[in-house]
């Protein structure tokens, strides 16, 4: 985007006319505006395939059902 020199000069003049204690706020706002126009960095994809490949993990559906029953029974006893 081409910004006319006159607009840049008006911005510079306005900033120079501000009290020094307001400059951090101006900078924060300018950085906010820049963040809206900068393309976001691509997110890093974490691959989990094979994460447990070398860990002996022998669990079947019946084991899971049994654990769920035990957990439910345990929680039911605590609630009562």
Write a structural description.
With 80 residues, this protein is mainly α. The N and C termini lie far apart (68 Å). The relative contact order is 0.05.
Question: Could you name the key traits of this structure?
Answer:
single chain, 80 residues, mainly alpha, 3 helices
Rg is 30 Å
Derived structural class? mainly alpha
Number of strands: 0
Oligomer: single chain
Tell me the β content: under 5%
- Percent range for helical residues? 55-70%
Distance between the termini: 68 Å
Given as residue ranges, the uncertain stretches (5+ residues, pLDDT < 50) are none
Number of helices: 3
- Shape, principal axes of CA atoms: elongated
The major pleated sheet works out as: none
- Please tell me the overall pLDDT: 87
- Helices and strands, in order, run as HHH
Short description:
With 80 residues, the protein is mainly α. 59% of the residues lie in helices and 0% in strands. The protein is elongated.
List the helices and strands and how they pair.
Blueprint lengths: L4 H13 L5 H15 L23 H19 L1
């Amino acid at each position: 985007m081409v910004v006319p020199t006159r607009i840049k000069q008006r911005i510079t003049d306005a900033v120079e006319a501000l009290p020094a204690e307001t400059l951090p706020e101006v900078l924060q706002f300018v950085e906010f505006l820049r963040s809206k126009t900068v393309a976001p960095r691509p997110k890093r994809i974490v691959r989990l395939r094979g994460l447990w490949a070398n860990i002996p993990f022998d669990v079947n559906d019946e084991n899971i059902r049994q654990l769920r029953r035990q957990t439910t029974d345990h929680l039911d006893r605590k609630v009562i």
